[in-house]
């Protein structure tokens, strides 16, 4: 098996603002694993606040020697080896996991969701993310999101109610909110939870810092709408601390090292009565289409990262009438876009 990789920079359609950061590009690494003339595609996405970069991913990938494996179907052994090379480097590890799964699907000529015996009719609708912005831009973004049935709104600024009121001036679609650890006071958070619930908000993601465990458990108990973990639920090992503290988790391939671990997390979450959202970073259609293969297993999807960029080098999973639509193509179901300039507008 031969690994190659190249750095790429995603251009965001809108400057992306969270509770404590703002940016207009995201670095990604595009990986390829080749075996007997077949190529699997993978990707690492590195939003700067998570600490990975073109350099760290390149350093990590250069340490791998996949020539010691003769058969890509030894997927568990290969991923165990990749995970033990270094601590951390979660997105870099995901780029191998995704390429390997794509390769295995192509070698067996089967899509991953079919390989996993999932029902493509059970895919959820995906939310579409509205970042923190001015009133005029928020309204423009909501109009651009016309085809999506659920909006995801970033809160945690000093104007949370204003943002929701602005959106409610143009649409009554259900909203899920992501506070990105932006709130500090539990009584303020509970008052917000009641107010948001009356505004047809369906859930609150990561209201407090991941260190505020007791406050989160209290809020989850008292809140009329469920509280989801994102930064608090990174890998499988974190899940035992989530049960009883949160009602659900947001699983992202770039946090949890890829499809193999995400699938394990979904199984555990289901057996622990946690609701599940599949989320993403800003990513190309490569990583998004990989995550979409698991989507028939979950209730919530926030797989819109590829919709927020101008220069997606892949074509993959489509969103039809707001719902994730899986193709029968093998592996993760992507092909390279022939002319990138066609997509740039
Ligand atoms: Mg989040």
Summarize the entry for a quick read.
The chain is of the alpha/beta class and 345 residues long. Helix content is 34%, strand content 24%. Helix 7 runs parallel beside helix 8.
Your description of this structure?
This protein is α/β, with parallel strands linked by helices. Helix 2 (75-85) packs antiparallel against helix 3 and helix 7 runs parallel beside helix 8. Helix 12 links the parallel strand 10 and strand 11 (300-301). Strands 4-5-6-7-8-9-10-11 form an eight-stranded parallel β-sheet. It has a three-stranded antiparallel β-sheet with strand order 1-2-3. A two-stranded antiparallel sheet has the order 12-15. 34% of the residues lie in helices and 24% in strands.
